[in-house]
Design a protein that fits this description.
Largest interface: A-B, 82 and 100 residues
Number of helices of chain A: 7
Strand order of the largest sheet of chain A: 9-8-7-10-6-1-4-5-11
Order of helices and strands of chain B: EEEHEHEHEHEEEEEEEEHEHEHEEH
Helix content of chain B: 25-40%
Largest sheet of chain B: 7 strands, parallel
Number of strands of chain B: 18
Oligomer: heterodimer
Shape of chain A: globular
Helix content of chain A: 25-40%
Shape of chain B: elongated
Amino acid sequence: MNILVCVKQVPDTAIAIKLDAEQKSIDRSELTYVVNPFDEYAIEAGLQLKEKYGGEVTLVTMGPDRADEALRTGMAMGADKGVHISDPALEGSDTLVTAKVLATAIRGLPYDIVLCGKVATDDNSGQVGPALAELLGIPHISGATTLEVDDAAKKATATREIEGGFMRMEVPIPAVITAEKDLNAPRYPSLPGIMKAKAKPVDKKDVASLGMDPSSVGLAGSKIQPMGMSLPPEREAGRIIEGEAEEAAKELARLLRAEVKIL
Amino acid sequence: MMRNIWVLAEHTDCKLKRVTFELLTKGREICAAVGGTLCAVLIGSGVESMVPDLQKWTSKVWVVDHPSLENYTPDAYAKAMTTLFEKERPIMLLLAASSNGRDLAPKLAARFDGALASSCTEVVMDGGRLVAVRPVLGETAFVRVGFKSPLQIMTVRPNVIPVAEPESPSNGTVEKVDVTFDEKDLRTKVLEVTKAAGKVELTEASIIVSGGRGMGGPENFKMLEELADVLGAAIGASRSAVDAGWRPHSEQVGQTGKVVNPTLYIACGISGAIQHLAGMKTSRWIVAINKDPEAPIFKMANFGIVANLFDVVPKLAEEIKVMKTD
């Protein structure tokens, strides 16, 4: 089975974000980068499919040179190889352009299933998976909390959370499935895995080798135009309600009625 | 050409959701600012009863009613939308940033090569230009974006737009559109839908009672459920409570869980890790109950109680119950 997993390297948001002097974008000088947490569930799902059906897990990423680290992390977990699309012309691409670039690269590869994270924690758009499926002309299920793939019957069954419940859906494969947190527990890269990952092949692609027009990608090709950033207003610490538990509970109830006006 | 601004009506059990009226409120505001006609799109099976409510807000209600649309699937809904788009190309489409809205919007953006801003928390006019504000980087920053496309699509978070009054009486026209589905429009099959009856959905809840590691174990959440019951609240949980297996992931609030926007968020035994704060800091009011006075959650709580939550929570529930029967 040919399993493709789209991965993205994202800033580690466990660290507080600062803006640059112009307040246009984030100050990248103090950032550390990790594999998008939701993509780790997708990688794990891909490795489990490989263990069941054999074949290969190929990671596909679009990003600057440092995104190679994300591929190496996924390969240390057990993925076989990587495709790294990197080009200065891609800078500023919105999520639809990203999906178009990934779709162009993926069309040239053999695949039975494409796995992605449900959302990237940096951009928070959740757009790439469903857009990619549309561009590839295949169905998708987003936010899968369970996934079973039947290679013989060429179908995938997944559960996704909806408001107030769950929905179990079935699609013919190839399909795009995006992973939600509950899908699995991603394995840690092993030390031999990390050593082996260094030697695994990564196919480097740029805009020209994908046959794309540079004006159709990057900021120039994007329909969403960033106009600036801001940090959320600091919340001020409020009032600590003093007193014993019973007294404090009583005072809180009073405040919920008098000030929050919710009772 | 008519400048049509469309709102996709979100509904459940033949009732329009509050977020639909939030979108209509915003849609009306945008029409007033840029000129245009507000239309609602109602898709589903047996949805007619919801038409009059939408007519009060709009010039036109487009209805696609078909058994294949009983449950949301990206294929079937996209086919319905495509049929409507071909009749009359809207310049703007507003959807809820719900599980379905966030699933459908990118598919439509890719199909029609439109600009999509997802999970917006604000949509404002800036010098005659429409600007969407959306949180990024785990809610630690907001980015302002403009659109460069004849088709602009936005998904908007529930609970961020206060609902206005409809312009009733209205005589919005209704147009039913027939859609023929073939096999390739229905590749996604729904096998089963399970819904917890009477449960308040986290992302739509106006009050949330949330528990963290300080709850000590799954059995103690019963206490929170009792408080939630008297408040009509939804239950949330921190990542550590979910990772410990005390609560399902569907209740997790935070970066790898849900982002919530309630009027009131009561955090019990939650210290306030940055990833948790990311999921709830836009709550209008925050209450923290924690025995550790140094817990970061107190830095953003409007009201804090430094005490053992096992003493406070039952008392609070009792007190509120008494107040409500007054």
